[in-house]
Amino acid sequence: MPVQHCHCVSYSLLLQSSLIFHVPAVLGGALCQDPEHPHGCSQGSCYPSTGDLLVGRADRLSATSTCGLRHRQPYCIVSHLQDEKKCFVCDSRRPYDPTSNPNSHRIENVITTFAPHRKKAWWQSENGVEQVSIRLDLEAEFHFTHLIMTFKTFRPAAMLVERSADFGRTWQVYRYFAYDCAASVPFASRGPLRRVDDVICESRYSDIEPSTEGEVIYRVLDPAIHIRDPYGPKIQNLLRVTNLRVNLTKLHTLGDNLLDSRREIKEKYYYAVYEMVLRGNCFCYGHASECAPLAGSPADVEGMVHGRCVCKHNTKGLNCEQCDDFYHELPWRPAEGRRTNACKKCNCNEHSYRCHFDMAVYLATGNTSGGVCDECQHNTMGRNCQLCKPFYYKDPTKDIRDPNVCHGERGAKAWSTRGIRPCRIMYNGTVNQFLDGCNGMFVFLMLLFLQNRCATETGQCRCRSHMVGRQCSQVQTGYFHIMLDHYTYEAEEAELHQGAEVVERMHLTGRPATWTGVGFVRVLEGNVVSFRIDNVPFTMEYDILLRYEPQLPGKWEVKVSVIRPGPILTSSPCGNTIPADDVMSTSLPPASRYVVLAQPVCLEQGVSYTIRVEFTRYGGHEPLQGASILLDSLVLMPRYSSLEMFIAGDPASIARKEIFERYRCVQQARPVIKAPTPEPCAHLLTSMSAVIHQGALPCLCSPQGSLSSECNPVGGQCQCKSHVVGRRCERCFPGTFGFGPAGCRACQCSPEGSLSGFCDNFSGQCPCRPGAFGLRCNHCQPVHWGFPNCRPCQCNGRSEECDPQTGSCLHCRGHTEGDRCQSCVSGYYGNPVLASGGHCRPCPCPEAPGSGRHFAATCHQDSRSGSVICSCLAGYTGPRCDECAPGYYGNPWQARGRCQPCACNNNIDVGDPTSCDRRTGQCLRCLYNSEGDQCQFCQGGYYGDATRRTCRRCSCNFLGTARSECPSRDQCQCERYSGQCRCLPNVQGQNCDHCAPNFWNIASGQGCQPCDCHPQYSLSSACNQFTGQCQCRPGFGGQTCSECQENHWGEPNQQCRVCDCDPRGIEKPQCHRITGHCSCRPGVSGVRCDQCSRGFAGEFPACQPCHKCFGDWDRIVQDLAGRTRALVQRAQQLQQTGVTGAFEGPFRRLQEKLSAAQTIVNARNATASAITHLLQNMDELRQEIADITETLTRLEGFLTATQDKNFNANHALGTLERGARGLNLSLADLSRQLEALMNANVLGAYDSVRQSYAQSREAEHRANTSTLAVPSPVSQSAATRRRTEHLITTRRDAFNRQNAANRRGLTDLSTRVAGLSLHQINEKVCGAPGDVPCANSPCGGAGCRDEDGQRHCGGLNCNGAVATADNALDRARHAEGELRRAVVDVDTLLRQVAEAKARAGEAKQRAQAALENANATKARLERSNKDLRDLIQQIKGFLNLEGADPDSIALVASRVLELSIPASPAQIHHLAEQIKERVSSLANVDAILNQTAGDVRVAGDLLKEARRANARAEGVKNAAQSVKKALDDAKRAQNAAEKAIRDAASDIHHTEDMMQEKTANAEGQLVFAMERVGDLERQVDELKMKRANNILAATRAEETASAARERAGEAEQILDGPLSDQYRTMKELVEHKAQHVLGARQKAERLRDEAKGLLRDAHDKLRRLSALEETYEENERLLQDKAAQLDGLEAKMRSILGDINQQIQIYNTCQ
C-alpha cells in the first residue's frame, strides 16, 4: 500500500508571516487531509488486458463484397485443394447455421468462436472481385497490437492494413503486403524496418503457397526494433485506433484467367477467410486497468473487450482523457511507466470546490501549479482563494482555511477591542502610524488617487492601470503591452475600388507566414484601397508602414492620402498640420516587402480617419498590361520622438532615446517575421505602451478560440486552439471554418469542384465551380451526375434521381426501367421516351400484371397492325397466353388458374401436343419405355425406375427362363422394378443365366438337371454346369464317376480292364467303357483298330483311301445291294404268301361277308332285321370292292412312276458321275493352291489377320463408347435433339404467329404499294399536284430540277412537308437563341441569389460583431457597478472608522465630489438622447434582416419545395438575430450609462471571463444552428436525412432561445438588481451631501424605465421566437407524416418485391 502523506499547515510558516499570533497546537492536526483510497494503478501506468476486438462486435464488422448476399452464387475450388467435389453454392442471405444454412459465408463467420468443426464456416467474397475491404468500426478509442488472418484460399497477392484514430475521417496505412511489391506498391519501401512506424511493403505473407490455411500476421510494434520510450506519445498514437480496415487489392490466380474469360474460370478465384483475430485493449492512456461496457453495448459476451475505461489517477472520460472534477492543479497527461502523472487536487484552502486549469498560470509558476479556483466563498479571492476581498481583512489568529478568516467592517471593530487597529493613511500618501499587523498590507484602494510617487517605506511606485511590480515594469495577469506594429489594418478588410480583389492564401505547415491576416489584395494600376482608422489610442505622430508582396521586377508609384473628418483645432497637438502634410507619395521597391512613408502623420485620439492608398503607376521598363501587386496591410507605428519619455530633455529621456535608436527598436518591428526583441527594447516598449494606453491593455482572448483567458504579455497574442488565428484568437485560420469552442475545422474543399481551397468562415461552404454542389463542392447538385463534369439526369421525366457516377436513372416511375427509364418493365409495353409522349401500358396476356391472370414475360405492340403480341411464360401459349402449352395442363381461363407441367416424370415429349391431356394432365404418350397415367412405370419387358428414366430391357436368358415369360429370345418379361426373371426349375440369377448348385445343363431349355455324382467315387456333389462332369476320385471316371477310370472298361464294382487298342489306329485312347470296343480313326477298323477298313487300301497303319470313284461306286453298289436285299426279302415273302398275299386280309374279310350274306339268303325264315343287315353288308361289300379296285389302280400308277424314277435315277447317276469327276479336278487344283499357300509367307497373312482383328476390336470399342459412355456423341446428340425439339416446341407458336403476321404485313404492303399514288406524295411533300409537269409546277416535285440542276421541291407559298420542315427549322433556330438568352438570364438570377446570400452573411457578421460589443459593454457595466458599490462601501467604512480626523474626511469627501458623475440634467438628457438614437437604430437592423429574408425567399422560389424549407429555417435565424439585435441595443443603452461612471470603474477580470464564455457558447450554438440550416438546404432532396437535420436544427434553435432567455434574464437581473442598488446608494449619498441633484434622480429613474422598456421589447422578441418555434415544430410534424407515408410506400414496395421474387422462384424451379 503506498504511503499517504498528511499535508498539514506548518506552525513555522505561521511564525514567518507578517502577522504573528499564538496558534493552538491542535490546529495542525485539524487541518490534515484525508488519505486517498488505494487502487491497482498506484505504482505507475496500468493497462487493461488484451483480447480479441472482434468478439461481441459482429454488427460493427463489415465487408464490401460477400458471396450470395443477393442470390445464390456458385463457386468452385482449385482441384488439389479439397475433395473430389469441385463446385458448390454460396447462399448468405441468412446467417450461418451448421444444420439449416451451412452455405452462408458472411463476414461474421471470421470471428473466433471455438465451436466444433470450425473449418465448416468462413467468410467468402464474390467471384472475381479483387478490390474488397474488411472494416471494423469501434465505438471508442482502443489500443491495437496485432492482426492474424487465416485464409481458406490462396492468400491475397496484394493487401494493406490501415487505421483511423478519428472515427473514419482520416486513414493511415500500417503495412503493405504484396507478392510483387515493386509492381503493386512501387511508392512503398521494401524494408527492412528501421523505425517502428515505418510504412513498408513485405512479401513473406503473400506467396501462393500454402493454398489453404495460410496466415497473414501483422504486429504494430515489431519485437525486433528496440523502443526507447514505449509510453511516449508517438508509440501511444501508433497503437490508438477507432477504426481498422484490411484492403484486399489483388487475387492470386494460376494464370488461366488471363487466357480464358469464361465465368467458370472466375468462379475459382475469390477471397475466403477462416478466421481473423484483432488483438487489442481499450485505450485509457495508462490510467485504467480494466474497462466496462458502454451504454448500448452487450455486457454478457464472454471474452469481449469493452470500451469504457474504469479510470484511476483522478481522471475521467471515456478514455480517461480528462482530469476529474476539482483535480486541475496539474495539466492532464498520459501515465508513463513508473510515473502515474495523476491529476492533482486543486488547493482552494477549503473556500471553493470548483476549479479549472489555466496553462498561462501553469507556465508562470514554473510548471508547478496551474489550478485556478472558481467561486471562492467566505469573502476570499485569488487563484487559491488565499486573499481576502477588498475591504475585508485577514484575521491573523485564524488559519487560511478557516471559513471566518476574512472580516469586514465588523471584524475591524473586533480587532480594536483586542488592541489591534488598522492602518491610517495621510492625505499626502504617507503612513502616519504602523501598528503590528499593518506592514505590507495595502488596506485602501484610495492609494490609487494619491500623487505619483513611491511609498517611502516599501519603494512601491504608483502604477498605471493594470501595471504591477515595485517599479510598475510588469503587466497584470490577463493584460499586455503592445508591439510597435500593433495597429495593423488588413488590406482584405479595407474598402476596395476599381477592380481590386482579395486573394486568400493558405499557410504551409512548418513554414512561417510572410503576411498577416487571411491573405492579400491584388491591385492594378489606378486601383484604390481605403483604410478606415477609428481606434487611435493617443494623440501623437504615427509612421505609416505599407507591407506588400511584389509580383513584377519594376517599382510601383503609390499615393497615400489621409482624409480627416474636419478641420483640426489649433489647440490640438496636431494643430500645426497643413493639408499638404496629409498627401504623400512613395515607391514600392521590388526587392523589399515593406516601405515606410518619408514623413509621419499626426492623428488624434477618438477621431476617425480614412487613409486612401492609390496605386498610380507601375514603373517597369516596358508598359505591361494587367500589372499587379499584392498589398498585405497598412500599419500605424507610434513615433517614439513624439513621446515625452524620449524628448523631455532630461538625462534619463536622452539615455532612453539613445538606447532606443542604438538597438534599432523601430526597425525590429517593421517586417512580418521578426527577430527576437532585445531586452532594452522590450523595457522601453513596455513603457511606451503604458504611456500611450494609460496602462496595460486587456487580453480579451476569445473564450471560444483561445486555450486560456491570459495572453502573452508582450504583444497580447492569445494561445489559440486548432486552426484559430488572430491576436484574440477570434477568427478561423484561412482554409478552415466553424469558429466555436472546439476551434475551427478544415474546409476540405474538393479540388475538382471548388474554385479555391477556402470556404465560408461560418457555414463552411466552398466556392463551387458551375455545376458542382455540396458543402465541399464534391458532388453534383440534385438531378445531375458525372462529377466534376456534372450533367442533368436524362430520365425521360420518369425519375428525378440518377446514379451520381454513371448517370443511370434510379427509382423509375410509370412502370419503366433502363439507364434512362427508356423501356417498360416486364409485363408492360409502350414507348416511354419523353419525346414520343407514350406511356407503359399493362400487357393483356390475358389480363394485366397483378390481376392473377398474367402469364407473359413481356409483350410488344406491332407497329403496323397495332395488335399486342405477348411473349408467354414457359407453359403458356396462345395469342393472349391463355392456353396451356404442350407438356402443361391447367385452367388458365379461370380466375387464379395456372398451367402446370404435366406430371409425367420427364417421360414425354413436351413439344408433342398429344403427349398429355391439357385439362387433366394425364400422360398419353410416354417415352423412354415407360407407361402409366404419369409415365411412372416401366413397360412390359423393361425394368427400372421410370421417374428417373432408367427403364432397361429385361435381359432374361432364353434357355433358363420359363417359356410363359419368355416366348422368344426378344420378348422376355421380368419383375418391373428389380428386373428379376422367372426361372426354370433349378435355374438361378436375376437373368436366369446359371444353374443352381449341384445342377447342370441349362442349355436343355427344360431347366437344370442334377449332377448325380456318385457319392462314393466323386470328390463332391458339384459338377461342371455345361458338361455335367463330376470331379472323380482316383481310379474312377465317367460323367458321374460311376465308371472306370480313363482308358479302362468294365464294371467298376467288379473288374476294370485296360483298353487293348492299337494306338496307331484309334481316334481316342478311351475305349467303350462296357464292351471295350476301340474307337477307330477313319480308314481303320477291327476290334483293336489294327487293320484298314473298307474303302481304304495299303498296309496298316498306312491306310490310304481308295480312288474317289470307289466311293461313288461303293455307295451305288451298297445301295443296289440294299435294294437287292429288300427285293430278296420281298421275293421270299411272295414266295411264302403268293402274289395275293398282300391282299390276303381284305380278301378274307370279303369272303366272310359273302358267307354271311349267303347264309341270310338261304335262310327260310329271314327276318326284317336280317334283311336289313344283309343289305348293309352288301353295301359294305360294294364299298370295299371299290376301295380295293382303287388301290390296285393306284398301285399300278405307282409302279409306272417307279419305273420313271428308276430311269431318272439312272440319268442322275450319270450326271453325278460327271460332277464327281469335275470335283476331283477342282480338289486337285485346290490342293495344289493350298500347298503353295503353305509354302508362302504365313506370318504376313497372320499379321494382316491380327491387324484386321485389332481394327475390328477398336471399332467395337468406339461403337460401345459412343453408345454407353456419358457424355458421348450419342448422348450429346440426344440432348441436342431434345433441345432442338424443345426450342421448336417453345417457339413454334411464336414462329407461326410471326410468320402469319409477316404474311399479313406482306399482303398489306402489296396492297398499299398497289394503291400508292405519286401524285398525292408530290402534293403532300412539295405542295403541288403531282400530275402537273415540272416546268409548270412552282413547287416542283419528284424528279424535278431547277436551272442549276438541283432537285426542286417546295418553295414560297407551298404547303408541302418540305416547306413546313424549313419553317420548323427556322423556328427551332429562333427557339435556340431564346434558350441561350434564357440561360444567360438564369445565370444572372443565380448571381443575384449568390449576392443575396452574401449580403445575408454580411448582415449576420455585423450582427455577431454587435453582439460581441454588447457583451463586452455588459461586462464593463457589471464591473463598474460592482466597483462603485465597493468604493461606496469603502468610503462608508472610512467615514465610520473611529479616530478618523476631520481633515481626512474632508479630503475624501472632496475627492468624491470631484468625480465626473453625470448628475446634471443636461448630462442625463444627453445620455437619454443617445439611448434613443441607439434604440432607433433597431429599424436599420430590421431592414437588413427583412432584405435578407426577401433574398432568401427569392432563392426559395427558384429552388421550389427544397428552398421553402430553407426559407423557414432562415426565418428562425432572422428571429434569433432580431432578439440578438434587441439585446445589442439594450447593451448600448447600458454603455451610455456606463460612460457616466467610467472614471470610477475598475475591471473585474473574473466576471468578464464568465460572461464572455457564456456569450461565446451562445454564439457557438447559433453558428452550429446556421450550419445545420445549410445542411438542410443541401440535403433537402433526401427526406429522411432532412427530417433528422430539422430535428437537430430545432434542438439547437431551442438551445439558442434558451440562451437568449438567460441573457434577457441576466439583463433583467442587472437592471432590477445591481442597477437598482446603485441607484439607491447614489440617491442616499447625494441627498446626504447635496440636495440640488433631485432632478438628476428623476432623470435616472426615466433612464431605468427606458431600460426596462428595452427589456420588455426583448421579451416581445422572445415571444416571437416562441411562435416561430411552434411553427417550426408544426413543419417538423408534417415532415414526420411525409416520412411515415414514405415508410408505408417502402413497405408496400417491399411486399410487391417479395411477391415478384416468389414468382421468380416458382418459375425458376419449373423444369
Structural description of this entry:
The protein is α+β, with helices and mostly antiparallel strands and 1711 residues long. Among the domains are: 53-282, Jelly Rolls (Sandwich); 482-638, Galactose-binding domain-like (Jelly Rolls, Sandwich); 843-900, Laminin (Ribbon), CATH 2.10.25; 1147-1188; 1408-1702, no CATH class. The protein is 35% helix and 18% strand. The chain is built from 27 helices and 82 strands. The strands form 33 sheets. Strands 1, 2, 5, 6, 7, 8, 9, 10, 11 and 12 form a 10-stranded mixed sheet that branches. Strands 28, 30, 31, 33, 36, 37 and 39 form a 7-stranded antiparallel sheet that branches. The chain has a 5-stranded antiparallel sheet with strand order 29-32-38-34-35, with no helix packed on it. Helix 22 (1482-1502) runs antiparallel to helix 23 (1504-1540). The longest helix has 80 residues, at 1361-1440. The chain is elongated and about 220 Å long. The chain starts with 10 loop residues before the first helix and ends with a helix. Residues 1-39, 410-452, 1460-1464, 1478-1489 and 1543-1548 have low confidence and may be disordered. Its main location: secreted.
The gross shape turns out to be: elongated
Largest sheet features: 10 strands, mixed
Q: How many helices does DSSP assign? A: 27
User: Based on helices, strands and strand pairing, what is the structural class?
Assistant: alpha+beta
Give the overall pLDDT as a whole number: 77
**Helical percentage:** 25-40%
Distance between the termini: 81 Å
Give the low-confidence spans.
Answer: 1-39, 410-452, 1460-1464, 1478-1489, 1543-1548
Biased composition (Polar residues): 1264-1279
Pfam family, one: EGF_laminin
GO biological process, one term: cell adhesion
Disulfide bonds: 311-320, 699-711, 701-718, 720-729, 747-759, 749-766, 768-777, 812-821, 872-881, 926-935, 983-992, 1011-1023, 1013-1030, 1032-1041, 1059-1071, 1061-1078, 1080-1089
